[in-house]
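Re: duplicated header lines in exported structure tokens

Our pipeline writes sequence and tokens for each protein into one text file. With two proteins the header for the second block appears twice in some exports. Here is an export where it did not happen, for reference. First protein block:
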Amino acid sequence: MIEILEAAASLAGFSAFAWLALRLWRARLAEKLLARERSMLAEAYERLSQAKAAAEARAMQFDATLAGMSDGLMVVDRELRLVLWNERFPDVTGVPASVLAPGLPLETMLRAQAAAGEFGPVDIEAEVARRMTLAQAHRDYGVTERTRPNGRTIELRRNALPDGGLVTLYTDVTARRRAEATAREAARARVAATEEKAHFVTTVSHELRTPLNALLDALSLLEAETLSVRQHSLATAARAAGQALLGLVGDVLELAQMEAGRLVLRPTSFAPRALLAEVVALFGPATAARGVSIIARTDAAVPQEVVADSARLRQVLINLVGNAAKFCNPGRIELRAHQTVGPAGPSLKLTVLDPGPPIPPTQAARLFRPFARLDAGRDKEGSGLGLAICERLVRLMGGGIGVSREGESNVFWFTVPLVAAPSKEPAGWPPPRPRRLRVLVVEDVAVARLVTATRLRRAGHHVVAVESAESGLRVLAGAPFDLVLTDLNLPGMDGAALAARMRAAGGTTAAVPVLALTAGVSPEDAAQARRAGVRAVLIKPLEPEALEQAMAAALAPPRVGLSLLGADFPPLAAAMGLETIAARAGETLARIKASLPALPAEASAASLADGMAAEAASLGFTALEMALRRHAIATRSGTRVPPAPPRLADVLTQTEAAVGEALRRRTA
């Protein structure tokens, strides 16, 4: 029994010990769990502290950014209530800083701006309602500008936020807009100055050309007289010096016109091979005497005929060959023409190789600048304008120009876009030489008046010469004339006004053709002269044969069966491109069609018909031009014509059809 009790006591003691051990283990386990949780809490607190510090740093950085912004910033929520703004916002918007607070309605801010006059003299409530409607409909996104009462210009950039709110950036662009306005004004001033210079140069060159042309014509007439060898030599030398001076005046005028953008290209169809042969023939005899030969080579790929301003191409080529002939050593000058293909399409490349002294690369770069000449190796002759004019002409034609060295030769080259000429239509008969005519010459310069009258009298014409347009009108009223030859730049009434007065006079005076013979004229003045009734503007100096042909063409009656589209139309279409010529033709024909009802049988409508005829002529609408010219003459002479002539309307319709067919053939 005692043993049993001792065993029970031992068991009880062991149980108590086990219980105490279990409690101790649980306590230690709890401490470990608590320690781990404390560690986790400490780590979490540390991360939270770091995140809070970072957030506070970002907030401080954001606040500093907002405070340092030169632009104003405003953010509203989807209910259009103020959420965020910066210090610059009140300054650039006119919203008082005292009223700004989170949750402030946009409507309140708009009303404050309207009351301060920020939107100008408007009805405040109506303007606020209008702007709120735009904001609520989300229709005022993007970039807008407004001018504040203080004259500052504010640019607004408004965008939507993902939660439906709006963010607006306000930028003061006053300085930028003023700079842009200053730049525009400076550009206008430069254009005006260029125009002023071009006008000045045109006026001065005309004043120089008029006596120079008279001098050259007088010397030409003198050379035709019976002179001794010495006298003839002196007259020839004087005329050569005058020609050189006239060329310099022409160079200055051309350079000014190109700088002002007033030089107009006149593309026509021509043969490159014939052009090169013409230049070779021009310089061949003179260079052969110095031991220099000139040859021309044209690549087989070059079309037989191309479309370009052949007169300007000839001018550039003659200048380059003239320089080569002047400066080259005994040897051979070679002209080459071949086709090249670049990113912009095919080009015609013309090259002049001369065995002259080498051109240093440092000087070659400035050869094409105005008044630039080589420092050594070549004589310092000429004005230094020739190559500068060539460079601008080539650039105006859409090409390029340059110089290099090939072996023992200098190589001057230039390119122009290559446009093949369309097939030619049979040409009409040339106008016959004019019969003995009664010609009225109107010229204010006495020497020029004498020379022109003498030249016409030697050709067998009866001439009356007067010094002013007013005198010309008085002479026309008292005697019949076949032709009037007038200068355009006359004191008082100019040549264009004289032609207009003749057309308005009616009767036989209105039917007298008027030709303008002038030393120089801008394209705008030439167009105005044609609108006034001048048949053609002829530029002095003019060879006697050219003057006779122009007189014959002015007097020739319209040919029977005249083509609807003249010979000018195909090269124009080729040079301008199908889209451009189609648009120009459509606009011109539509304008003429709209003007037909305004052609009553009254003298006042004749100038309108002349203007329409000039428009038709500018695009090669030959039949339409002649129909309008006939209508103008009939109107001035008092012939009864219906308000909208059926024949004129028919020719217009036929011309429209002919243009469409011609363009379709080119696209086929």
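Second protein block, exported in the same file:
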Amino acid sequence: MVDVKRLAKGFWVISLVVLLLGGLVLPAAAQSGGVVTAEVDRTSLSTDEVLLLTVTVDLATDAGQPSLPALDGFDLLSSSNSAQFHLGNGGMQAQAIYQYQLRPTRPGTLTIGPIEVEVGGQRYQTDPITVQVSQGTGNLVQPVPQPALPGFPSLPNFPSFPNLLGGGGAATGNLPVFPAAPPAGLQGQDFYVTAEIDQATPYQGQQVVYTFRFFQASELFDQPEYQAPDFTGLWHEQQPEQAEYVLEVAGRSYRVTELQTVLFPTVVGELTIDPAGLLIPGGFFSNDQELHTQPVPLTVRPLPDPAPAGFQGAVGQFSLEAAVDPLQTVVNDTVTWHVAISGRGNIGNLPDPAWPEGPEWRAFDSPASVETTFADGLLQGTRRYERVLVPTQAGSLTLPPLTYVYFDPLLGSYQTLQSGPTVVAVAPDGQSTAPRLPTLPAGSGGQPPAGDGAEVAGLQPLKPVQDTWQSSRAPLPFQAGYWLLWTIPLALLVGQWGWQWQQKRRAGRAEQRQQAQAAAVARQALRQSGPGSAPAGQILLDYLAMRLSRPVVGLTRYALAGLLRDKGVPDELVHQTMDCLAQSDATRFAPAAAPNAGLLAETEQLITALDPFLS
């Protein structure tokens, strides 16, 4: 008779051995099983068309980005990603969608190999995809840009930086090819930033162009926030126009956005331009990224000694034009001296010319008008003057030459510009059509002669003035009621000041009490948190608003981090605060459940650590 217990025990032992051996020989990447899927929008196309490859990843657990195989026979034009949420029987489900635009490079049967994605610590791979490609006419059909989120419009441009969301992650479109060699540190990252200057050893006052570049290979979830350096020791002007290029590096297509700032050193010696920053907002399942450039050193050389007479600090390359209009006038009439200084340099801050003076002219100056443009990587323009001159004597009057001295950094020497002399023909004042005052007869003592009311030289007789004036009352300042009335507004001002002082004192005490109790209120809210309560991130934001005495809702993570650093909070605590807020935001999109006890405890510890720095 068969021993059932012994047979069952042997069955479980054999099964356990099979499972253990199977685990040892399992392949490194399992089939997707619906966790990861890949599909194309067509299976037949020509070399003139673009193939759209879509990879969908189930976000039930932590998931990485797809790893594309070698795309033999295809060029990767652009990539983008988004997240989608929908309700099913098991609650809310989330998916990450990655889209790639591929252009066939040759006809035939082309295969897209398996695409691998790591989900929950397990690697999954999709099935290969085969498409048929026919020979096209050579007229490429431009790819359709994919928005950052399906059905959502592109976000507007933000101040001082271009709209980086338009056209997909690295959509090439008609962008020109990046004209320089790729940076050494760019080795396939999603995002990368660099900064450089065109002059490492400029003269004081010489133009320097600072160029910030953003290399983008993936789609942006939201507009980034650019933080320019302080440019200490440098006069600076950021240019509103940006250039865009396309660059192929490490098998990825990058969209390069270039932002330039014109600098003019104001001090001599060794300077360092601090790193520029770019905050890239994260998506639903990714944190914010902070990118920083390397500091840029430069050595500012002093201008040569000795400087010639008349030099007032102009540095660049300039030309001078001068003209007088009209060339014929009369005494006490006006002529205008038109002067224009044009060229390359700090046009807006150029020193004015040294105007020649003379007793034969009276001069009236007006502010200069400035026109500037930024072209070919240089700031250039024109500074115009219109000086009004009034001749004080007749004759052929000569305006002396106008001299302007500047330093040319390209030549390394001082240069002098000079206009030619100008002769103005000035007629005597008697030939002027200006009205003249009437001449009274001698002996009249300045009074018109008496008569029967006849007018002399168009003047009416003066009305006789009484010998004395009499007042029925004492002067107003000597009346008691006048000074009594002045006490009324003075009393009102004192009362208003006292009331406002009392209100501010009460408000200050209430704010101090609120700040002192901020940590205790936050801890109590965290400990009482339950279903339907405010999330940990909202409690943390309310605490920060009370401690900083200002609203923080609506601030970007970059701006909030700056406020904490200004209060002396260490970088480690700042990063913990940002991570806590990001984790709290992620739980808002998860299925309804009890609050995360670990996150609540972590938030309470974080508030305890922050409180000494914010007190």
